[in-house]
Amino acid sequence: MKDKKQLTAWDKKYIWHPFTQMKDYMNMEPLMIERGEGCYLVDTDGKKYIDGVSSLWVLVHGHKKKELIEALINQSQKLCHSTLLGLANVPSTVLAQKLIEISPKGLTKVFYSDNGSTAVEIALKMAYQYWQQKGERKRKTFISFTNGYHGDTIGSVSVGGIDLFHKVYKPLLFKTYKAPAPYCYRCPLKLKRESCDMACVSAYEQLVHSHRHELCAAIIEPCIQGAAGMITQPRGFLSAIWKITKENGILFIADEVATGFGRTGTMFACEHEKVEPDFLCLAKGITGGYLPLAATLTTDEVFGGFLGEFHEFKTFFHGHTYTGNPVASAVAVANIELFKTEKTLTHLKPKIRLLTKELERFKNLPHVGEVRQCGFMVGIELVRNRKTKEPFTPEEKVGQRAIWEARKRGVVIRPLGDVIVLMPPLVIETEILQELLHVTYESIRVVTE
User: Fold this and answer.
1) To 10 degrees, what angle do helices 237-247 and 199-211 make?
2) pLDDT by residue (tens digit) across 82-127?
3) Domain that holds residue 52
């Protein structure tokens, strides 16, 4: 391996990092990760850091997990890749059966891709083409939610709702309808949490009624909007939205790229309110954080809308070179097996309770406006003035400074603006979880005092 000085020079010379202001980055000493061990990342100097965001929300069973590495090696020795265009392969077939087995009722078909954005793009295109082939040609648009994030490709950005990420691309996007998403701390409808009676549900219903004959589908991040700042939805919101959608004959897309595979305490967030979507978009944790893979699950009803004679051209003309990659699929199968053999979700429950308890003290910090939690997904919103909810200015870089302070103390976390995000691996040991929380608390305190 090249020495750290050489690697740093190459990194700054050649790599453009995602969601990173490179002017700032070029003036910093980059953290060069060399390996992972359990719930730790290790840099080129041998220093260990708690992986506090699961390497961007993907790590489930920790780094260097024997069973996942063995699955990767064993499959690589048999077949690294074979196209899924008109052919099948063993691991993707086995994985499809396992995904359907653990997914919400009614989902029966699996379409593979490479990442969360493409999983969403597929659901959007399938929903659109389904209605076109059913003869309902007016159904050409979608309904989504403010503050939503569904990925960075053009279709997924079109149904997204974060201006900071998406505004610049507006001329490229297709028309969608945006319903107000619940953000109880900063209610978009200017109502009070205690007395609003979930007015955002009524607003959604009115929008659906006004446009139901032109809507293909509704899309939502179930229970919590991740990239918006870990904004949690009131209990009952998801099921109410689903019910309204189905009563009006509109397809329902659940984007569980971030919430799937145990992040909210159940295998999928839809389970919390017994929601049965027409599409389930999966990625991130599907391989336990070891290889890129995504899947879009759908129903027999949708699948049937694409069946026909060859000359009718009802085929879903969409695919990716590495669709259903055998190595990634084999690792995903091993990942699901680990959930069963190691009782991952059962062991997660007490850790969620501990997390809830320990987060209470964060509310005593004078610049913590709100602490939001859904299972093992946490957002800590920092504000200049707790009483007025006045935010810090972007120039102050409070969120950035907090995570840099944490890095000095041996923790890797990443903010969403001035919301500090915690999303550790599901298997994190209690002692390491407590250390993660201690460092995060002290880092916020030091930066904001």
Assistant:
1) 20
2) 999 999 999 999 999 999 999 999 999 999 999 999 999 999 999 9
3) 31-61+346-448
What count of residues does the chain have? 449
Phi, psi of 329 (to 5 degrees): -65, -40
**Residue 192 buriedness (CB in 10 A; 0-12 / 13-18 / 19+):** exposed
Could you tell me the CATH number of the domain that includes residue 333? Answer: 3.40.640.10
**Residue 412 β-bridge partners:** 51
SS3 50: strand
Q: Which two tokens stand for residue 260?
A: 């799937």
In a domain, 18, yes or no: no
Q: Hey, what are 358's tokens?
A: 């320990």
Helix (H) / strand (E) containing 264: none
Interatomic CA distance for residues 91 and 87, integer angstroms: 13
- Calculate the dihedral angle through the C-alpha atoms of 220, 225, 228, 229, rounding to the nearest 10 degrees: 180
Helix (H, G, I), strand (E, B) or coil at 86: coil
Q: 157 in helix, strand or coil?
A: helix
Angstrom distance (rounded) from CA 291 to CA 65 = 13
Question: Residue 382 — pLDDT band, cuts 50, 70, 90?
Answer: very high
Cα atoms found within 13 Å of the Cα of residue 182, Cβ hemisphere only: 25
* Cα 79 off chain centre by: 29
Secondary structure class of 218 (helix, strand, coil)? strand
| Residue 275 resides in a domain | yes
Selection from 253, 322, 314 nearest residue 107 by Cα: 253
Domain membership of residue 16 (yes or no) is: no
Q: Give residues with Cβ within 8 angstroms of 126, minimum separation 6.
A: 111, 279, 296, 298, 302, 306, 316
Q: How many other C-beta atoms lie within 10 A of the C-beta of residue 145?
A: 27
**Cα–Cα distance measured from residue 237 to residue 179, given in angstroms and rounded to the nearest whole number:** 13
Same domain (yes/no): 224, 304 = yes
CA distance 173 to 151: 13
Structure tokens at 415: 């903010």
Single out the residue of 119, 349, 143, 149 nearest to residue 231, CA to CA: 149
Query: Number of H helices and number of E strands within the chain?
Result: 15, 17
Radius of gyration of the chain (CA): 22
pTM for the whole structure: 0.97
